[in-house]
Amino acid sequence: MNKVLTLVGANISIPPMIPGIIYLSMVLGRFALSNEWRWQLPLSGLTMEAARMYLKEFVIGSSILAIIAGILIGILSYGMFHYVEKKANSA
């Protein structure tokens, strides 16, 4: 029962963040491929070639975003655990 509740609780809060995650992945992927920041995502006149390019940008950008998020969460977790341990040892 605990595993089911954990799975449901972990996945219930992410759907509102999906558009932001996709957008950031596309922007980071575009920057990685072309070395320029372009914040617009033109979707008018979408062709298969453009869709392939967007897919490439998304895959590369989502990988970069995952690495950055992992590092930030790791640093934050380390800091929090270090603070809690320090506080527990002093009490």
Mean pLDDT: 84
| SS field, number of helical segments | 3
- Going by helix content, strand content and strand pairing, the class is mainly alpha
Strand content: under 5%
| Major sheet attributes | none
Detail the poorly predicted runs.
none
> Shape from CA axes?
elongated
Give Rg in angstroms. Answer: 19 Å
Helix content: over 70%
How many beta-strand runs? 0
> What letter string, H or E per element, gives the SSE order?
HHH
The separation of the N and C termini measures 35 Å
Question: Your description of this structure?
Answer:
The protein is an all-alpha fold and 91 residues long. Helix content is 78%, strand content 0%. The chain has 3 helices and no strands. The chain is elongated, with a radius of gyration of 19 Å. The two termini are 35 Å apart. The model has no long low-confidence stretch (mean pLDDT 84).
Task: Give a quick set of tags describing it.
mainly alpha; 0% strand; 91 residues
SSE diagram, text form:
Blueprint: H1 2-12, H2 18-34, H3 48-90
Précis, in short:
The protein has 91 residues and is mainly α.
